[in-house]
């Protein structure tokens, strides 16, 4: 599947019974609604952190004691620290401060948001499935179609979780819930 803005918009318009378009016209309210839905779900879903968008960074502390985060940072993974993202800066929850002047650099796990054309296809498909479901729930209210799209979301999420487990925690895939997910993975045809 082509991972373009036009593909996203046409898929979201199609599911609510609108005609496809040939180019993005931001003056069209349906196009704007579709783009807004994509942006909303892309940000929220990527914010959970997956194998492709969670990295450990050594960030410099500037002369004012501030640590600035990359512009595409969605969150800071707080499993190992008491740091969070506030705006574009790192914030220390324990000390209630933006001041890191006692450090030269701070090491944190950062979750980043990727553009639609950079996403792994499995993540692109999952976000698109969530958006399609939302468009119907919000604009079309077709309960039969919602059931079909709900299944589409569940399958896409399952595939995403399997990929995430394989890539992020290969040593954890041999037992427990991870093994159950992997065993229940649909076979390729």
Notable characteristics:
alpha+beta, three-stranded antiparallel beta sheet, 189 residues, 5 strands, elongated
Please tell me about this protein's structure.
This protein is of the alpha+beta class. It has 2 domains: 5-48 and 116-183, no CATH class; 54-112, no CATH class. The protein has 5 helices and 5 strands, in the order ααβββββααα. The strands form 2 sheets. Strands 1-5-2 form a 3-stranded antiparallel sheet, with no helix packed on it. A two-stranded antiparallel ribbon has the order 3-4. Strand 3 and strand 4 form a beta hairpin. Helix 1 (5-15) packs parallel to helix 3, helix 2 (29-46) packs across helix 3 (121-140) and helix 3 (121-140) runs antiparallel to helix 4. The longest helix is centred in the C-terminal third of the chain and has 26 residues, at 143-168.
What's the helix and strand layout?
Elements (H helix, E strand, L loop, with lengths): L4 H11 L13 H18 L7 E7 L12 E5 L5 E4 L2 E4 L12 E8 L8 H20 L2 H26 L7 H8 L6
Antiparallel strand pairs: 1-5, 2-5, 3-4
Helix pairs in contact: 1-2, 1-3, 2-3, 3-4
Structural class: alpha+beta
Helix and strand sequence: HHEEEEEHHH
The beta-strand count equals: 5
Radius of gyration: 20 Å
How many domains comprise the coordinates?
A: 2
Average pLDDT works out at: 90
Strand line-up of the largest beta sheet: 1-5-2
Strand portion, in percent? 5-15%
Low-confidence stretches: none
Number of helices: 5
Largest sheet: 3 strands, antiparallel
Specify the helix fraction band: 40-55%
């Amino acid at each position: 599947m082509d991972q373009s803005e036009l593909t996203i918009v046409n898929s979201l318009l199609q599911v609510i019974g609108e005609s496809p378009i040939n180019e993005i016209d931001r003056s069209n309210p349906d196009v704007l609604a579709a783009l807004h839905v994509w942006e909303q779900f892309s940000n929220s879903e990527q914010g959970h952190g997956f194998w492709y968008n969670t990295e450990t960074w050594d960030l410099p502390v500037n002369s004012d004691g501030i640590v600035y985060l990359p512009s595409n940072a969605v969150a800071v993974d707080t499993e190992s620290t008491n740091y969070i993202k506030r705006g574009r800066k790192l914030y220390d929850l324990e000390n209630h401060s933006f001041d890191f002047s006692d450090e030269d650099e701070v090491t944190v796990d950062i979750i980043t948001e990727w553009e639609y054309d950079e996403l792994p296809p499995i993540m692109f498909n999952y976000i698109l499935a969530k958006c399609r479901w939302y468009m119907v729930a919000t604009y079309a209210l077709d309960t039969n179609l919602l059931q079909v799209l709900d299944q589409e979301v569940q399958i896409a999420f399952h595939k995403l979780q399997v990929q995430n487990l394989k890539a992020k925690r290969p040593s954890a895939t041999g037992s427990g819930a991870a093994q159950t997910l992997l065993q229940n993975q649909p076979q390729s045809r």
